[in-house]
Amino acid sequence: MRDFKKSWVYIYEGGKIIVDKKIIKQMKEQNEISIELLKAKYLPLILYILKSFQLSYEDQEECINDVLLKVYNSIENYNEKTSLKNYVALITRRVALNYIRKNKQNPLFYEDMDIFGTYDYYDSLDWDFIIKKLKHSEKTLFYKHYYYFQSIETIALESGATYKSVESRLYRLRKKLRKIIQEENDYEQK
C-alpha cells in the first residue's frame, strides 16, 4: 500500500481513495466531479453539524447544496494551512447560521454559540494551529460547543458537570482563544 503523508485525509469511495488534495486540485481546475467527491467524503460531517440546528429535511437539503457550492466557489480563498475538513465545517456552520438568520428561526441561541462571528477575518486564521495550543479538555469543550453546536446543558450532562461550571469554562476558553488569536496577529505584524 502507498505511504500517504499524515496531512492527507482519505476515505474509500467505490474502492478508490479520495484524498483532500485531489478534491482541492479538482476544484481549482473547475472540475464539477470535485463536488461529488467532496459530498462523498464530507456529507456525514455536514449532516452532523446541521443536525444541531434542528432544520427540516428540506432545509437541510438546501443547506447541503449551499455548503457544497460555497466550498466549490470559494476554494481559491482556501488557506491550505487549515484542513479541508475544518474549512467545510466552518462553511457549514456559516451557511446554517445565515439560513437561520434569513428565516428568523431562533437566531439568538445560535448567535451566542458562533465564536467565529460573521467576519471573513476568521476564515483566514489557522484554526488547526490555534486549537493545538489548547489543553485536551479545552479542545474537547471547543469542539463540542463551537464545532458541533452542542448546548451547554448537553455538555454538562455528558461530563457530569453543572451548567454554571460548563458556562464558566466556555467563558475562560473564549478569553484564551482571543488571547491566542491576538498573539498570532501581533507575531504576524512583526
Radius of gyration: 18 Å
Describe the biggest sheet?
Answer: 2 strands, antiparallel
Q: Assign an overall shape.
A: globular
Structural class by secondary-structure content: mainly alpha
Roughly what is the average pLDDT, rounded to an integer?
79
Give the spatial strand order of the biggest sheet.
Answer: 1-2
Specify the CATH architecture of the largest domain. Orthogonal Bundle
- CATH first level of the largest domain: Mainly Alpha
Number of helices: 9
Describe the protein in words:
The protein is mainly alpha-helical and 190 residues long. It has helices at residues 20-28, 33-51, 57-73, 84-102, 107-113, 127-132, 136-147, 152-159, 163-189; strands at 10-13, 16-19. It has two domains: 8-114, Rna Polymerase Sigma Factor, Chain: A; 125-190, Winged helix-like DNA-binding domain superfamily/Winged helix DNA-binding domain (Arc Repressor Mutant, subunit A). Helix content is 65%, strand content 4%. Helix 2 packs across helix 3 and helix 8 (152-159) crosses helix 9. 21% of the residues are buried.
